[in-house]
Design brief:
Distance between the termini of chain A: 63 Å
Number of helices of chain A: 11
Largest sheet of chain A: none
Order of helices and strands of chain A: HHHHHHHHHHH
Number of domains of chain A: 2
Shape of chain A: elongated
CATH class of the largest domain in chain A: Mainly Alpha
Oligomer: homotetramer
Radius of gyration of chain A: 20 Å
Strand content of chain A: under 5%
Amino acid sequence: MPSPPSRPALRARYDQRRRRVIDAAAHAFAQRGYHATSVAALLQATGLTAGGLYHYIATKDDLLMLICDELIDPLLDRARAISAAQDPPQDQLREILHAWLEHIEAHLDHMRVFQQERHVIEGEPHWHEIRAKRREFERMLDEILARAQERGVMRIPDRRLALLALLGMVNYTPQWFHPGGRLDAAQIADGYCDLMLEAYAANSLRGSESA
Amino acid sequence: MPSPPSRPALRARYDQRRRRVIDAAAHAFAQRGYHATSVAALLQATGLTAGGLYHYIATKDDLLMLICDELIDPLLDRARAISAAQDPPQDQLREILHAWLEHIEAHLDHMRVFQQERHVIEGEPHWHEIRAKRREFERMLDEILARAQERGVMRIPDRRLALLALLGMVNYTPQWFHPGGRLDAAQIADGYCDLMLEAYAANSLRGSESA
Amino acid sequence: MPSPPSRPALRARYDQRRRRVIDAAAHAFAQRGYHATSVAALLQATGLTAGGLYHYIATKDDLLMLICDELIDPLLDRARAISAAQDPPQDQLREILHAWLEHIEAHLDHMRVFQQERHVIEGEPHWHEIRAKRREFERMLDEILARAQERGVMRIPDRRLALLALLGMVNYTPQWFHPGGRLDAAQIADGYCDLMLEAYAANSLRGSESA
Amino acid sequence: MPSPPSRPALRARYDQRRRRVIDAAAHAFAQRGYHATSVAALLQATGLTAGGLYHYIATKDDLLMLICDELIDPLLDRARAISAAQDPPQDQLREILHAWLEHIEAHLDHMRVFQQERHVIEGEPHWHEIRAKRREFERMLDEILARAQERGVMRIPDRRLALLALLGMVNYTPQWFHPGGRLDAAQIADGYCDLMLEAYAANSLRGSESA
DNA sequence: TATGAATGAGCCTTCATTCAT
DNA sequence: CATGAATGAAGGCTCATTCAT
């Protein structure tokens, strides 16, 4: 893998082609799995030859990391922005879920790969960076729930479990979501948000009764 | 793979050893992943030799199917029993979640493997049987939700999404659950059950207001 | 590369076959060079298949180290014995040269490989051990020269240069020696020994004159 | 590889750059070995681009031949001159050794490559020319020894072995020589020359005694 | 019965060289 | 002239599985 060209004009073309390679790989990995996708299959999918592919990536593993990398950063940025704006926590929750599910919708293959190839990803040297970003994202979610509790908007018996339930339902989404289906990202986000807000509504009848 | 011994005394010992092989494999696959676990590693983990291992299994893939097989049937049986007994749907939901999470707790490695190695499992000829069982389980869950709706116990805006959310949170559990931790299977089951019941409570304040 | 069998009977057969592999590789490397000898060529030379070869070695590089390893130790042992026995230094020199050249004669291919593939060998992690042994051997040679000087048997203007000249002529030998030729190892050893003893004879005419 | 420019002004610049390429390659090959030095490394060392490099050479192998070619001819010319001038053979030996070791000193990298990459060089079609020149050089050395014997200046028990010993010590020199060290080319040449003259001195005491 | 040496197709990757731009 | 993306054959190596002993 030679270093990318530094001249801007060439660099742009290089980046574009590289992106195409990464997306094609994400699609193939999502479809058939990382291990079942041979480099030969990637060559066919990209139309490149063996040597050509390795202009854009260092390793088949590396390809996996590239898929994951470009996945996390943009979502993390949006989450930070939402978290920084001091909207009411229930609004923040909805916004972050919308961002998240739109991200899943936009990068469905990448998300599927990220979910499914944990063992490979965790074996990479890069892994700790990805995990750190993941944790930051989860911490922001948790803080929203905490603020909702503090402000009396939600009453959550076990916040850790609530967070894990939320992570579970969202992370499972790529496994069944298919674009153009009955539900779009926004509807799913609203569904999950309502689910959480209703479940832990501070002023629910049962909530009031048990108080 | 020679056929198992037919004399009962020998058959018992055979079955016991085979179970030990399957469990060891489940542990290794859960820890390192199916592809990263070589047959050689399995040999070391079981203390068997190459020839010895293949007395108990036909194939490495086959091992994966064995792990999955013994996983689904007992849970499916319990679910059928719960479903057949005509308890109130909210009780059925709680019972099935308890059964489910106890199953996860008891077969944590197997569950992790089942979740993580989808691509391999889906490539097996056996796969359609497993999928059929899986779908039966999900259908039973769905029917409980449907009955709860019919009887006015729950008011679910989108039952498909509610089901998928539930599947997501439970299926995600093996990824973070660790035995002897703060929460046991029963507590998690109750947490999820409450979450669902509260979220879709028919007589919630907000539910009534928005109606 | 599986670990070698521990049962003595099997171990013997294993060691014998392994030796045959190493010798065949040494021959091929000596003939065509390390890089020009593909693993496929090694397979043909040994009659093994790809997987079979890798029962005996870990790596093609490893093979090179095996060739070198078994080369140095026996000679070093003989040199130590000669060095320990406190014969007159001129006898020690002759003995060590005989041992050395017989070693070259007996392991001609290995020696050629060792001389010719320096760059590969020096890149190996094992390299520092080999270098240490090599240096010990050279130090023993140097000590013999030093003792010869001390005892007035030789008068050496520049002992370092004398040692390097000796190393040069012996190390060059594998490049032209061919078994069954006009000169055998003993004759060459004597030739080199005489060359050194005459060149630095303490009581030579010119030596005396210049003193 | 386009043909070099024919206009003299351009040709000079071309030759100069080409020389720089060859020297850089010699340095890299000497340092890391021919096979371990990729063309990419050569590009970095020279500052050229792939296309650029191939203006000056036809092939990576070709580069090796260029390194060797410019190595032998000048030394051979000097040797011929020394051989033609009918000085006493002991003076010729000294002169040729001085020329030789100065050549080594001046082209240390090239000499190292020539010594170390025998297998590659011998695979080249060009090889027979180089070998012919090499042999001519060795024949001239041998003739000097023969003349010394004829004239009674030296008494050499085995002239072939004496020649091989000399070739060995000189050819080994590039492996340990380092410019600016304790010994310069002239001192080494004298050391080797004295070594040979003393070893085979016709009128040595022991020589006379043993006769 | 139990062993472990052997199989061999297929894997990922490299790199000297070319040629459209 | 110069560029650097692309070539593609060949490389070393793996590993689930078999079977002679």
